[in-house]
Amino acid sequence: MTLPLDQIITGDALAVMKDWPDQCIDLIVTDPPYGVGIPYASYDDSVDAWTALMAVAMPQMLRIARMVVVPSCQIKLLPWWYRNFPPGWLIAWYKGSPGHASAIGFNDWEPIMVYGRPCRPMHDYFQCRCGFELDWHPCPKPLAWSTWLCQRASGPGDIILDPFCGSGTTCVAAKKLGRKYIGIEIDPVYAEKARARLASTPEPLFVEQPQETQAQLFGEQP
């Protein structure tokens, strides 16, 4: 089938992904709801809703993508991840957000779950501030967050999917980096505003040169 490249689809990610072939996406970088009561327009952001969503979304994402990168959401949910979808590795995102509470006071970092391998070696720690850059979405990720992950976990021309597209930040990062992107967003207002954001995003000023293949980097047989 032909994938809808460089588009944001309005719809339910589960319904859209179920018909896609295995391993058709190079990288998923996504930021699903955290189950912390954010007032989304089209989603009940409760822990029960999060658990039900991840239980059905993760098998589809792991099926269609060679690599999946997704936040743990609440750190206290890590046991759920390791019982149900144990990651291959964790990346530590230092977000420097002392305004966010934790069980011991402040929450300054966040685990990012990693499934699969990147096209080249990458570090498992990065730093960017957690700040709201848009006024029309209740919880957008910083562009620097998506850019760091997309740049290091993909190569030029790779297809990057965000099935919980929200404000479109991952798609913006992919476009700026010269990658192909697909976004899926269930809320029509968010989807339309994300499309407008993409339309105003310039094409990359340069395109990276191709990197070594994963097989070459990790000594695997092609």
Q: What's the gist of this structure?
A:
By secondary structure, the chain is α/β, with parallel strands linked by helices.
Shape summary: globular
N→C terminal distance: 25 Å
Overall average pLDDT: 88
Poorly predicted sequence stretches spanning 5 or more consecutive residues: 213-222
**The CATH homology group name:** Vaccinia Virus protein VP39
Question: What key phrases describe this protein's structure?
Answer:
single chain, 222 residues, alpha/beta, Rossmann fold, eight-stranded mixed sheet, two-stranded antiparallel ribbon, 30% helix, 18% strand, disordered C terminus
Give a verbal description of the structure:
Strand 2, helix 2 (47-64) and strand 3 form a beta-alpha-beta unit. Helices cover 30% and strands 18% of the residues. It has an eight-stranded mixed sheet, covered by helices on one side. The chain is of the alpha/beta class. The protein contains seven helices and ten strands. It starts with 6 loop residues before the first strand and ends with a helix. It has one domain (7-201): Vaccinia Virus protein VP39 (Rossmann fold, 3-Layer(aba) Sandwich).
